[in-house]
Amino acid sequence: MRELTDEAAAIAKDIGGTTLLRDHGGGFSPTTVQLHRISAGDPSTALAAAPHSLPSVERRARYYTDIAAAFGRWGRRDECIRALLAAEHRAPEETHARRP
To answer: I want to staple 18 with a disulfide (CB 3.0 to 4.6 A). Which of 6, 10, 27, 62 is the partner?
Structure first.
């Protein structure tokens, strides 16, 4: 997974900006590759990401739930709760309906 994700990151960097894809709201960009790394469980990537650059409310909510999972794995309970509350604040419907 890391090898393929590294390849995707290199392609995204070469393309520059965001390439819109049919049936995919976020397109393809270095940011979306980073989101994939976060969702795949790379907590260090999650903490380095910039949520304000994400293309949609749903993506930002998912970012915060992934951050919460990273903090949870590290035993950082207070930060985990803050991240979950941030997700809920930005997209309550998305946060309540999506399974972790």
So the answer is: 27
